[in-house]
Amino acid sequence: MKASDLLVRALENEGVEYVFGIPGEENLDLLESLAGSNIRLILTRHEQGAGFMAATYGRLTGKAGVCLATLGPGATNLVTTTAHAQLGAMPMVTITGQKPIKHSKQGQFQIIDVVDMMRPLTKYTRQIVSGGTIPARIREAFRLAEEERPGATHLELPEDIAREDTDAAPITASLTRRPVTEAKAVDYAIKLLTEAKHPVLVIGAGANRKLTAKMLRAFVDKQGIPFVTTQMGKGVLDETHPLYLGNAAVSEGDFPHRALEAADLILNVGHDVVEKPPFMMSTGERKVIHINFQPAQVDPVYFPHAGMVGDIANSIWQLNESIAPQPHWDFDFMFRARDALHEHMAEGCEDSSFPVLPQRLVRDVRRVIPDDGIIALDNGIYKLWFARNYPARQPNTVLLDNALASMGAGLPSAMAARLVYPERKVMAICGDGGFMMNSQEIETAVRLKMDLVVLILNDRAYGMIKWKQKHMGLKDFGLDFDNPCFITYARSYGAHGHRLEATDELEGLMRECLAAGGVHLIDVPVDYSHNVRILNEEIPRLSKAL
Q: pTM for this structure?
């Protein structure tokens, strides 16, 4: 068969459902092969949209999302999303085209070394130089993308290789099982737990990937040990649980950080040094146990005292089977910190002033989104408010990126969630800056007949950087802009546009849009003027007073 047909058969063999992307002339043979396949091509309006969608598909399913681009500028437009998938541990396979490698007649037109460009951003990058190597290249790209730690891989398919004839056949994936923690590591962790007086759990991104929620819930319920989540660990356990101490959304000084400071043993589950976590190390009495699929990557901010390396769910199960709650465990201070956090988070939730305060916004979104509903956050200051104030009820229902933290990811991520979970309610929450970076994908969402609500938090500025600028005592400069009329903009794509006129109308408007079907953009004026006072001044002062 033609090599491009073999490549598509190999993708089908890997269970690929979608290919997200924008083909170019170097991909036309592959495009023709896809046309005869059961794989659905999701044509986007920018390669970034395709890459963010593929990465989010991988994040939600554990199976590598696939994105496609042509050579040159098509490939370079995937650099950001490749880094997004790699740093965020989201399995993704990128396929790019290339000019003929045997008889090129166009010199260096559009040609850059894409394979070398992708090398520092991926787990694996190769040019396919023969149709016969396609099965092995595809199998290896998917194996590496999906195995712990997941990430991005890349294959380049030159157009003359795509046209070759080959009699090769796809390679079937071998059955593999993740290793489990060795017995002596379990024994040492039990010893530390038995000796501890104030143990606590910190749940990070790795625990969200493999859905270890069942074992962690059984552990927490039996042992009674409280837990903190990182931004990318939100939802692994129900954050309305009475043992939940809060999310480490801000870098330091919040109530959950005080609880961690009071701990003498931290069970750090699924931690990744890529994610910006709370600082938890100590040169004193506090010990940290690293519980993850891989050994700890030692860093100036992370140097654990012990490790349980292996399947996370199995490690937690072994601990739970081997120890009972200790009578000397004391969580009184941690629960004081939890209660103070809840009291503080309640402030501003009933405020009807307009533009909308972040606390009220988060409260209203939580009211309208079902427990299994998904919010996809772009990157901006609102991400901290949602991480801190929005109680996630189920794993992977709050899609935010605390690794590369690229703007422009919110809308495409929500669209991928709609494809994976068509029965769930999905909302994209974007700042006006981040939304405009990939706003053209509204056309894609309309064309695909998606039911999707997009909140555009409108402060006419790059609000996250303005917050930091103000906190540093610098003058207000260089971060303000104007926006289009988002109602007209939405309607120009065939979507529905709405503008919030009063805070008390927000909850009802969101409910109407979620129930109506179709693509809805809601322009939400937002007031960030209290960020420095609350996040940088008030929270540290109140938490220190505990």
A: 0.95
